């Protein structure tokens, strides 16, 4: 009997096959698994399931360099199948591409695939400078006269923004807008949307798009005498691995920034397949939706991919995104899938939002080396080591240990739930003096060289004279180097109180080099009366 079968491939690379009697769509389904981001590829073809095989799929999927819209069907879980590959396509300018190991046949990449031609993908380069900040100039390495006729300057750094799967390019335009505010540079946005509309195709096509970026840089070098060390690739999601492909083909490339590199089909793959430290002189990575397993609901990879790997808020789920999810027991599946997609987008997009904010805040986003986020939250990795700490984002290249190899440190920090996201970490310790133990709360008002002051809650509960209370605080204001501290306490009782407390000694540690400031006091005060401390 002939059946109609529909294959769905989600963003995590999992394939769900639904069998239906042709020509009507019958609810008699032999297997269906629902994922919030299913239907990334939706194909309907009449087939005879009795004769279906992995070999047939391989032949239909890899028969030419140009793929039809159909990706065919694959054997369904839970039995894993590895499809036999071994084909090759070659294209002018960008070379040859095989679908064998390590591009397929591994646990993370069980399905063979070849990239489309450069003409089908149609990778475009859109230049913005301070001469044309709003209207792009399309430039081409194939017709390199367009580069010479444009506002491209060989005297300036070049930032190339590369999107991932199905991107509308808005974040790239925002990135150029912010970059050009602080830097007179060449800002180029890559458009490879033709090759990235379906995730599985995009995974394969980024190899050709990456080769096109490398060819573009090669033309800059050979035709215009431009140094590849002045090129900075900024890639989001699949675009991060695309940047890695370009970097692997470009000796002496200056820098790659990976913004939450994609996990599906790249997690635990060999370095040749994904972004890795060998792809540029500096590879820095921001992980914001990084998971190990698909059921953890993440679009990024937990794998360290660079010289500096930053995991803000642990790198998995970002504050401010979790309130997008409606509980599943509402039984509104369409609404749930929509909100799950928003949840992915929010976490995944935080990487480029953090990066853009860092451009305007050179001293923000200080990150601390630590074995795990749990250890970081416990305060075991504060303050910065002797060599200092890097800042996550645009100014990570200022870190003097950035190129140390091997540098497999994980760098952690916290951010806020809303913009402005930056936080500045302080470790505050206060030793109390007083006439009686009491129930209350202790606050310290800290001022600094930035001309700002912030009040922090340090302790609450039983306040014991002679005891020392310590708290790690992520401040939403950068006070600079600490120059003043005031002590205030509030009692958890009503009416007039005979109790008096004071700060005998306060120590603040903060900043990328762990600056320590110590202030002392001698008197004690009643509740809500400020005690002004002096440097010891």
CATH C-level of the domain at 285-422: Alpha Beta
Return Rg in Å.
28 Å
Distance between the termini: 89 Å
Q: Biggest β-sheet: count, sense, barrel?
A: 10 strands, mixed
| Proportion of beta-strand residues | 25-35%
Spatial order of the strands forming the largest sheet: 7-6-9-8-10-11-12-15-17-16
Percent helix, as a range, is 10-25%
CATH architecture assignment of the domain at 285-422: 3-Layer(aba) Sandwich
For the record, what is the CATH homologous superfamily label of the domain at 285-422?
A: Alpha/Beta hydrolase fold, catalytic domain
Bulk shape: elongated
User: Would you count the extended β strands for me?
Assistant: 26
The helix/strand class is alpha/beta
Number of helices: 8
**Low-pLDDT regions:** 1-84, 325-329
Mean pLDDT rating: 83
Indicate the CATH topology of the domain at 285-422: Rossmann fold
Binding site for Ca(2+): 274, 276, 279
Organism: Phyllostomus discolor
Subcellular location: Secreted
EC number: 3.1.1.3
Q: Could you explain the architecture of this structure?
A:
It holds the Pfam family Lipase. One of its GO terms (molecular function) is lipoprotein lipase activity. It comes from Phyllostomus discolor (pale spear-nosed bat). Its main location: secreted. This is Triacylglycerol lipase. The chain is α/β, with parallel strands linked by helices and 536 residues long. Among the domains are: 3-79, no CATH class; 285-422, Rossmann fold (3-Layer(aba) Sandwich); 424-535, Lipoxygenase-1. It has 8 helices and 26 strands. The chain has helices at 54-61, 118-121, 145-148, 170-182, 199-224, 238-248, 333-359, 373-377, and strands at residues 3-9, 15-21, 41-47, 88-91, 95-98, 124-129, 132-139, 158-162, 186-191, 231-236, 255-259, 282-286, 290-291, 300-301, 308-312, 368-370, 410-413, 424-434, 438-448, 453-463, 468-475, 482-491, 501-510, 515-520, 531-532, 534-535. The strands form 6 sheets. Strands 7-6-9-8-10-11-12-15-17-16 form a 10-stranded mixed β-sheet, sandwiched between helices. A 5-stranded antiparallel β-sheet has the order 21-18-23-24-26, with no helix packed on it. Strands 20-19-22-25 form a 4-stranded antiparallel β-sheet, with no helix packed on it. A hairpin with a 2-residue loop joins β6 and β7. α4 (170-182) runs parallel beside α7 and α5 (199-224) runs parallel beside α6. The radius of gyration is 28 Å and the shape is elongated.
